[in-house]
Amino acid sequence: MVFCSMSSKPARRTRVTLRCLREDLEVEVPPVETDLGNLEHPLVAEARRLAPAAPRGQRRILSIEHPLV
Asked: Is this prediction's pTM over 0.85?
């Protein structure tokens, strides 16, 4: 992989999942060549704004065995 940047860290990207797009944002799925990170939606824009300052090295939660009730 080649990065064309002066920084040693790749740029942070934001994009929504298809499930989030359809179910949460209630937006029609755009054509396949559309970059989901560039969608015009207030929540996607806020995620783009926050992404550069978000902590690095976090792990995804794959499952929660005992949720708090």
From this structure: no
